Every structure is written in structure tokens, then in C-alpha cells.
Amino acid sequence: MPRDNLSKNLNKTVQTLIALRRDLTNKENKENKDHKEGKKKSGEKASKQAKRTLSDVEKSEESDNSVNLSSDFDGISKDLGEIKSALKDNIKKDDLTKALENLVKQSDIEQIVTNIVDKLLGTLKNEIKNEVNDKVTEITNKQNTEIQLLKSQNSTLSNQLEKQNIRLNSIIEMEDTTNKSYVALSMANYNEQYSRKFNIKMVNFQTENDENLRGYFLKTVKDDLNLKLEKRDIVAIHNFFVF
User: Fold this and answer.
1) How do residues 45-79 score in pLDDT, each as one tens digit?
2) Which of 66, 130, 206, 213 is the most exposed place for a label (fewest CB within 10 A)?
3) Count H helices, E strands: the chain?
4) Is the distance from CB of 68 to CB of 23 less than 8 angstroms?
5) Cα angle: 48, vertex 52, 58; to 5 degrees
6) Which stretches does the entry tag as region Disordered (predicted)?
7) pTM for this one?
8) How sure is the predictor about 88, in pLDDT bands with cuts at 50, 70 and 90?
9) Using CA atoms, how far apart are residues 189 and 178, in angstroms rounded to an integer?
């Protein structure tokens, strides 16, 4: 498959670059190590340098490195060419158009965000509404309980007040009766005192007939005292005997 070849070429190129970098690093480390060892063995290197100069060695190493690098870069260029060719063969305008069509449009994003916000607001609104309803129900139930308690207390107080009113009316009636009795007693006492003030006692008043005491009394008062009285002036008259 073309896409599989493209993937293989990419992997191969990356591996080649990594191997190249690893070879260069190993060479640098080796040169540093050789340079340090050369200081310790200066006698041996001096004799060898007589036969072979340093410039010859450097030229030889540069030649080897250039050959290796040239070979590596040729391989990389070849891989890049294959990748470029694979891209030309596989990526078409229709593929790009289809990929763009699959991307989410700005309007779609706005619609999605709007829907999410609406759902969140709806959920939050319902939660707040439920909490408010629960709180209102709780307060309403509490108030109804308090109202029922107040009604019961009011009924009890009304009954007690009615009993107190009955008792108060009874006390008022008793007081009124007492006052009336006191007034009546006072008037009776006054009348008794008044009647006693106007009582007349006559000793040795003799009459021929006890049934006509009023007439004999009026005649006697008129004759002896020269005082004329009418029958209506005498309320009552009777005899009493002294033993």
C-alpha cells in the first residue's frame, strides 16, 4: 500500500539520522580518548610521527568521515525523495477538501457551546427552583403548624375568657343584689327610724269601743289640744297593754 510505504520510508529516514548522530558522537568520544592517551605515551607517538605526520592522519580521518557522511546523506536524500513522491501520489485535493469538511465549523462550535450553556442554565434553573420550592414548602409547613398552635391557644383563651366573663357577670349580679339589699335595708331602717319619730303614745286613753280608736283619738286631740287632724294623717293606731 502507498501509505504503508510512506510510513516505512519515514521510519527509515529517522533511524538513519539517529544512527548518523550516534556515529559522530562515538567518533568524537574516541578522538578525545585517543588524545588523552597520546599525552601519556608521547615517546611512542613521537617515533610513530616520524614515519607518519599528523596532517596525514587528519587527512585520512577527514577522508573517511567525508565518505561516510556522503554515503549517509545520499541515503537521506533518497529517502526524502521517496517521501516526497509518496506524498504527491497519496495526498490529493479531494483528500484535503474532505478533511476540511470534517473540521468543525465556527458556527457549529457556537451552536454546541450555546446548547451546552442552555443545558447548564436549565439544570441550574431547575436546581434553584427545586431548592426554592423545598424552602417555601418547609416555611409554609412551619407557619401552618404555628398557625394551628395559635388557633388552639386562641380557642383555649377564648374559653377561659368566656368562663371569666360568666364569673364576672355573676359577681356583678351579686354585687348589684348586695347593693340593692343594702339600699333596701337602709331605707327600711330609715323608715323605721322615721316612723318612730312620729309615733305617739297615749297613756290612760280610754275608749268605749276599741274598734273606733281612730275616731276617739281625733276627737280627743281636737278637744284637748285644739289640733285638727285628718284620718289620713294617722297611718295606724292600736292599743297595747302594760302588765
Assistant:
1) 444 444 444 455 454 555 554 545 566 566 666 66
2) 206
3) 6, 0
4) yes
5) 115
6) 17-71
7) 0.31
8) low
9) 16
Average pLDDT, the chain: 71
pLDDT number for residue 77: 67
Distance (Å, rounded) from C-alpha 97 to C-alpha 120?
Answer: 35
Angle subtended by helix axes 54-90 and 2-40, to nearest 10: 170
Distance CA(161)–CA(174), nearest Å, equals 19
> 28's torsion region: left (phi>0), alpha (psi -120 to 50) or beta?
alpha
Neighbours of 134 (CB within 10 A): 10
C-alpha R_g of the chain: 74
User: What is the Cα–Cα distance from 148 to 208, expressed in whole angstroms?
Assistant: 92
Closest by Cα among 90, 79, 88, 95 to 8: 79
- DSSP letters spanning 44-93: HHHHHHHHS-HHHHHHHHHHHHHHHHHHHHHHHHHHHHHHHHHHHHH--H
The tens digit of pLDDT for each residue in 211-230 reads 678 888 888 888 888 888 88
Q: Of 225, 229, 204, which Cα lies nearest the Cα of 215?
A: 229
Beta strands in the chain (DSSP E): none
List of residues 6+ apart from 154 with CB closer than 8 A: none
